[in-house]
Write a structure and sequence with these properties.
This protein has 394 residues and is α/β, with parallel strands linked by helices. The protein folds into three domains: 59 residues; 177 residues, Rossmann fold (3-Layer(aba) Sandwich); 116 residues. The longest helix has 21 residues. It starts with a helix and ends in a 6-residue tail after the last strand.
Length: 394
């Protein structure tokens, strides 16, 4: 549902807070909501009940991103989906530090709050009054000294050192927008912000060719091995591409100023270990650098797995000890696993059309052992690599 300004005003009132407090302790599962709504309509108008239930459900979903603060914040469904991981918000705020910052398309203010808590003087601007009202509320309950105003970022922005730009990447029907010039507003709006450092939050699947004309540096950020987002840093000395890994209190960077494809790494058959790079390295096009750093071999020029004699000691990588490998053939693989009393397999794949759901039933295993089976390619030909069940920990 769409939350209106009247809904926001009610939810911030004493009556609204009482309703949200009641809903925080309620069963909001799909099977119970209708009965709950029926009961609440005896006390509140239907439209306010809908707004309250929607907000209570969003607060529950927001706990992973906002912790205990989620129970006091206001959200829209779209803004919550687009909100950054808490480690990413904290990391960006630490990089920016103390400065004057404009949060263009601030939404409900979650990034603005993080920047303000990191020491920046923040002005958040958004075209939608409901989001601005929510942003002001979220800053207040978080104790962040950020201010917000309604405005069109395609016009003149207030003076600042830095502009953080988070355009909408879904259309009115909720479908993802992949073309950066169809973002709302389009990426080209940053051309009018010369003389300032500009930070643009992008989709992790952004086409690198689409942003090359803007210069600067494209950074891909993963949290504990899960790719979260891409960021364009424009201005200052930012150049090339960078992969960033956030893991607990660790912040790791892998950077190159090269924006063209590197020479292909050497190829080789599976050695002692099968290595999988962090997805931020993959998206930043840094796999060749990694393979060279750890003296490995690529299995195929188009496949991101590589192989090494020894397991690398790096938080950027996961490794599986290789037990054996062979050209892919279901009958041969089934016989091999049965001979070794394997009854359970974990199937990984990269560059193979075969799915785990189709392969596992064909193996018909009954043994007591367990392995990881990796479906991939060696110089273009399909192979299967049999590895120990568990990878090395990061």
């Amino acid at each position: 549902m769409t939350i209106t300004q009247d809904d926001v005003a009610f939810l911030k009132s004493a009556a609204g807070e009482a309703l949200l407090e009641r809903l925080a302790a309620a069963d909001l599962s799909e099977g119970n909501v209708l009965r709950l709504v029926t009961t609440l309509r005896k006390t509140y108008p239907p439209e306010l009940v809908r707004a309250g239930v929607e907000m209570a459900q969003l607060r529950q979903r927001a706990v992973d991103k906002f912790g205990a603060d989620a129970g006091r914040m206001l959200f829209t469904r779209e803004a919550l989906e687009q909100a950054s991981d808490p480690l990413v918000r904290r990391y960006r705020a630490e990089v920016v530090g103390r400065c004057k910052l404009v949060d263009a398309c601030c939404g409900i203010g979650t990034d603005a709050v993080a920047f303000a808590q990191g020491g920046a003087q923040v002005i958040g601007i958004d075209l939608e009054p409901v989001r601005v009202a929510m942003a002001a509320h979220n800053a207040e309950v978080s104790g962040a000294a950020a201010r917000f105003e309604i405005g069109d970022v395609r016009g003149e922005l207030p003076a600042s050192d830095v502009v953080f730009f988070d355009p909408a990447r879904r259309d009115a029907d909720g479908k993802r927008i992949h073309d950066v010039e169809r973002y709302l507003p389009p990426l080209s709006v940053i051309e009018g912000w010369a003389g300032r450092e500009v930070i643009v939050k992008l989709s992790p699947g952004v086409e690198l060719e689409a942003v090359e004309r803007y210069g600067g540096m494209v950074e891909f950020i993963s949290v504990s091995g899960e790719l979260k987002e891409a960021v364009l840093w424009r201005g200052g000395r930012h150049r090339g591409r960078q992969a960033t890994l956030l893991m607990g209190n660790h912040v790791l960077h892998w950077q190159t100023e090269r924006v063209t494809a590197a020479e292909a790494a050497r190829l080789g058959e599976p050695h002692g270990w099968l290595i999988e790079p962090d997805p931020a390295l993959l998206r930043a096009g840094l796999v060749t650098d990694v393979v060279e750093r750890f003296e490995g071999w690529m299995l195929d020029p188009t496949i991101a797995y590589f192989t090494t004699d020894d397991v690398p000691d790096s938080m950027w990588l996961r490794g599986w000890r290789v037990l054996d490998w062979m050209p892919f053939n279901v009958k041969r693989l089934r016989a091999y696993l049965r001979e070794r009393d394997v009854g359970r397999v974990t199937v990984k794949k990269r560059g193979s059309p075969v799915t785990p759901e189709s392969l596992i039933p064909q193996l018909k295993l009954k043994g007591s052992g367990a392995v990881t089976v990796v479906l991939t390619r060696l110089r273009g030909d399909p192979i299967v690599i049999i590895c120990e069940e568990q990878p090395t920990s990061r």
